[in-house]
Design goal:
The complex is a heterodimer of chains A (196) and B (228). Chain A is 36% helix and 17% strand. Chain A is an alpha/beta fold. Chain A has one domain: Rossmann fold (3-Layer(aba) Sandwich), CATH 3.40.50.300. A six-stranded mixed β-sheet of chain A has the order 2-3-4-1-5-6, with helices on both faces. In chain A, α5 links the parallel β3 and β4. The longest helix of chain A is centred in the C-terminal third of the chain and has 16 residues. Chain A is globular. Chain B has one domain. The chains are: A alpha/beta (196), B mainly alpha (228). Chains A and B meet through α2 of A and α1 and α5 of B.
């Protein structure tokens, strides 16, 4: 169970079922056994994944307005500024660099101010500035009493943000506990031991 | 979800598709070029002394519109695969039938666009008088188009994630197009021959029933076709 204000980082090697877990939480896949429940349903979920889920022919503003309309929400006035996207607002997404596209994808996921963020390898493809902006946003998200589930195979990038850590192997949790002050190095050693 | 919300989300999705198409002009341009090319080729290939234009034009009209529609339908869901936008749509708090309805509206606008260009071209190339029968002809084309675009939009969603989507779509769709096409051709032949409207009323009714049945079925089946 992930409570408001908690950030659960799930680590696992490729093929361990991390993305499938997020899809189950998002309601995109029905679990074969058990059930997953997110308070507030799909409206409460923001998703940042490998793929930006944006339309290349539309501008940044048009994309955000489109996704906002589907969530009955308006993009906040400071959303683009927080991600350093103000000057790119009227550029078509297909003309942006990969790092900028990923920043727009983050803005898209936050457009409806979700209570729960599901992040699938969110730092992949981000430049240093965007990675720092994302870390800052995730910190603000947690400080506002929102929940986050982050899955990644990179222990270093996920640990600092996490209040709780879990390890997955072959579709199962082999470890799930509060981080309790453990650093990336200690979590990394425990992770390597757990999945060995 | 309430009907006004479903319709509002459908329009948001359709407007997005139309804006993207307006920017890229890939589907509509290839369909329009195909319509013009088909009419030009048929125009030069016919022998007006052997078969009168009035007898030939309806078949050419419907074959051309059908194949051009398949070209446009093939692209309907490809747009959603770029950057995995379809996952985003499935995650959004909207009824999945809104996605289908949005695509249907956008596809109908695409197909109507090249049909609007095609009808005057048919008059020009084949020298047939359509103006006296324009209102019933427009109704006939609209009813037939809704039917095959409704089925085509569903099949486009079904086939888009397959390896041979562009081959599969026509293979699946063409059998379902036989009925509306044959009714459309027969009704058009009678219209152009100046027969009374009562003679085509039966086909118009059949097309309306076909539309209702297949739009309802597609709305019912669509959520299952996009689920993982």
């Amino acid at each position: 169970m992930v409570n408001p204000g908690q950030t659960l980082a799930v680590f696992g090697p490729n093929g361990s079922g991390k993305t499938t877990l997020l899809k189950v939480l998002a309601g995109l896949i029905q679990p074969q056994r058990g059930r997953a429940y997110v308070e507030g349903g799909r409206r409460a979920i923001g998703w940042i994944g490998h793929q930006p889920q944006l339309y290349g022919q539309l501008t940044v503003n048009e994309n955000l307005r489109f996704w906002g309309l589907l969530y009955d929400a308006q993009p906040g006035p400071d959303l683009l500024a927080r991600l350093g996207l103000e000057e790119h607002a009227n550029r078509q997404v297909r003309t942006l660099s990969r790092g900028l596209v990923q920043r727009v994808a983050i803005a898209r996921a936050l457009v409806h101010d979700p209570r729960v963020l599901l992040l699938d390898e969110p730092f992949t493809g981000l430049d240093r500035i965007a990675a720092e902006a994302l870390s800052r946003l995730l910190g603000q998200h947690a400080a506002a009493g929102r929940a986050t589930v982050l899955v990644t195979h990179n222990v270093e990038e996920g640990t600092e943000l996490a209040t709780d850590v879990a390890f997955m192997r072959n579709g199962r949790f082999v470890h799930c506990a509060p981080r309790s002050g453990r650093g990336a190095q200690q979590v990394g050693e425990e992770y390597r031991h757990a999945i060995a | 979800m309430r009907l006004p919300d479903v319709l509002r989300h459908s329009w948001v999705l359709a407007a997005k598709d139309l804006r993207v198409e307006f920017r890229s002009r890939t589907a509509i341009l290839s369909a329009v070029v195909f319509v013009i090319l088909a009419f030009v080729v048929f125009n030069f290939g016919r022998d007006p002394t052997a078969v009168p234009n009035v007898a030939l034009a309806p078949s050419i009209l419907w074959v051309t519109f059908t194949l051009a529609a398949i070209l446009a339908l093939n692209r309907a869901f490809h747009l959603e695969l770029e950057n995995h936008a379809l996952d985003g749509l499935l995650l959004a708090p909207i009824d999945r039938s809104s996605i289908y309805l949005g695509k249907l509206i956008a596809n109908l606008v695409f197909v109507a666009t090249f049909e609007l260009i095609g009808v005057p071209l048919l008059m020009l190339f084949f020298n047939v008088r359509l103006l006296p029968y324009l209102a019933p002809l427009v109704l006939l084309i609209a009813l037939a188009t809704i039917g095959f675009v409704a089925v085509g939009t569903l099949f486009s969603a079904m086939t888009v994630r397959t390896r041979f989507a562009e081959l599969l779509l026509p293979v699946l769709l063409l059998p379902f197009m036989i009925l509306p096409l044959s009714w459309g051709v027969q009704a058009t032949v009678r219209l152009l021959a100046g027969r009374p409207l009562s003679e085509i009323a039966g086909w118009l009714n059949m097309l309306a029933v076909y539309d209702i049945v297949f739009v309802a079925l597609a709305l019912l089946l669509f959520p299952a076709t996009v689920s993982e």
